[in-house]
Amino acid sequence: MRTHRRPTPLDEQRIPVRTALAAAWTSFMFLYIYVDYFHLHKPGVIDNLRAGVVFEFDISPPLLTLMLTSVAIPALMVLLSATLPARVSRTTNLIVASLYIPYSVFNAAGESWDWAFFYILSIGIEVLILAFILRSAWTWPRTRSDAADAAEAGLLTSPE
Fold first, then answer.
1. Residue-level pLDDT at 87
2. Residue ranges of the domains in the chain?
């Protein structure tokens, strides 16, 4: 004879901010790279690459260095979010995510309206991930100091 047990609620453990930030930057990186990869499927892109042109720019060492930097910064943010001291990590995440929002939107400049949905969707998701990073870094929980605990308990008196 089988008895039916009611399912118990799942244990919802709080994810550490560092882990959430590293996961968000990882998600951003996957999306960022795949958008570039799927862009290669757009008619004419491969022909332009073979001709030595990306968008309107000639392929050159400075251009490739700029492109590498634009991918390397979010990749490094995965590591930095997990390893920097909390205050530095928070500040770095706030600055870098803030700078990447306009950068992500700018990447659609000059694209044809035929591909608007692709770019709106991909950039929209990128911006949502960056907004999550900003929110997570901004609301990073603070630890209470012993002085604050004592003051709240009424153990410290202010000089009169």
1. 95
2. 17-137
